[in-house]
Amino acid sequence: MNKGELHKTVDTQQSIDEKWMNYALSLADQAELLGEIPVGAVLVKNDRIVAEGWNLSIVSHDACAHAEIMAIREAGKTLQNYRLIDCTLYVTLEPCPMCAGALVHARIKRLVYGAGDYKTGAAGSVFDLVRSDKLNHQIEVTSDIFAERCAAKISNFFKRRRKEKKVLKKQLLADS
Questions:
Q1: Which of 52, 68, 140, 148 is catalytic?
Q2: Burial grade of 49 (CB within 10 A; 0-12, 13-18, 19 or more)
Q3: Residue 36 annotated as catalytic
Q4: Which of 51, 114, 42 has its CA nearest to residue 80?
Q5: pLDDT tens, 133-165?
Q6: Rounded CA gap, 64 and 96, in Å?
Q7: 111 and 141 in contact (C-beta within 8 Å)?
Q8: Spatial separation of the C-alpha atoms in residues 12 and 63, rounded to whole Å
Q9: CA-to-CA dists, residue 106 to 63, 110, 127, angstroms
């Protein structure tokens, strides 16, 4: 492969990553419509959707109902196998330790995420579970695909929530 072919391959992979991250961002919108933290995930194999998910922890009262877990659960049913060999997971926020462990256990080949999570990220920001040589599987990671858009979506969500709580608190004080 010459330099021109390699550059074309990289450009093609980047455009594929951007296409699926855009889709994951639309799934994050689904979470936000439900009042959930807007994180979306899509699991892809051979450039086709295998499964998708978005955060459902609040509405389902389930600490494990993160976007990645929802996508992994659906993919296992779709593929009739908990091992998701040769699949890529696109997610708008860097996975937490729980999700990173599930990705390793599911044998995801590649992880592509948007915004880093500098409090609980487990794909390089705080921890790097997905590439740990102490585990039996390592995942190829690509980060920062539409990082600013992904981070802004989450940041705007929390700003709005804080503002809503402030308004509610004022109403409660005025009513008493």
A1: 68
A2: middle
A3: no
A4: 51
A5: 999 999 999 999 999 999 999 999 999 988 888
A6: 11
A7: yes
A8: 37
A9: 19, 11, 19
- Number of neighbouring beta carbons within 10 Å of residue 166: 10
DSSP 174: H
**What average pLDDT does the chain have?**
93
How far apart are the C-alpha atoms of 55 and 43, rounded to whole Å?
Answer: 14
pLDDT band at 6 (very low <50, low <70, confident <90, very high): low
- Residue 26 — pLDDT band, cuts 50, 70, 90? very high
CA distances from 122 to 23, 34, 42 (A): 22, 26, 18
Calculate Rg over the CA atoms of the chain: 18
CA 175 → CA 68, 89, 167, distances in Å? 42, 48, 12
pTM: 0.89
